[in-house]
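Need tokens for this chain, all 263 residues.
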Amino acid sequence: MSLRDRLHRAHILAAPGVVFTKLGRPDIGLSTMSEMADTMALIRDRVALPVIIDADTGFGNALNARRTMTVYERAGANALQVEDQTCPKRCGQLADKSLISTAEMVGKIAAMADARVSREALIFAHADAIAVEGFEAAVDRARRYLEVGADALFIEAPRSTEELRAICTTFKGRAPLMANMVEGGATPITGAADLEALGFALVIFPGGIVRALAKTAQEYYASLRATGSNTAFKDRMFDFNGLNARIGTADMLAMGARFEAKG
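Here are the structure tokens for all 263 residues:
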């Protein structure tokens, strides 16, 4: 089975998750290429699934985007998502974004396509123009990105089910399409099955786990402060043995024992 066929079970390494957890800051272009690549390498040590990694704007011009492709692929990424915002970028769901020209983005994608070692390393072109230039402009940009080497499309922040449907109608049979579901974002929340029925190949929920864990952490600390104990919260958390079982502590200790000096 090709990588393209396996991407429906991919792990997504999105910049929001990295900047939220490593920096405790918003998704406004603060994470660096090296921070993302280091995180990618750590994930590759533990995750066998294909990984789609956020490349933001390629972290500069076409040469920077080319280097990002090389470094990410070396770190174990299977697909890169690169967007057409100016640098520093901001979350695609935020207002007041600005874009580079179509020609500049075309150059970045071409440079990345030229740099990849494996043809199985896919490039997702992230078109962010709907909120800036309008829906038709975003579609026109996406067409150009496909022409120069993009393998899949992520047209960010469609504002209605009609726009979601129009994206699928326009690009049906031409490239896999990715949708983005963010609670409170510009796009109406739509289930994975409904998105698949429209024609999307992938749906991502970037930062979802961080939002869930942040709310749980807030509730945990509120409970701890109020009661002075974890007892009231114990049904919502692993105990010591449960967490060790989940992260494979016994297996790691057994592996270490195999290599201990004997005698």
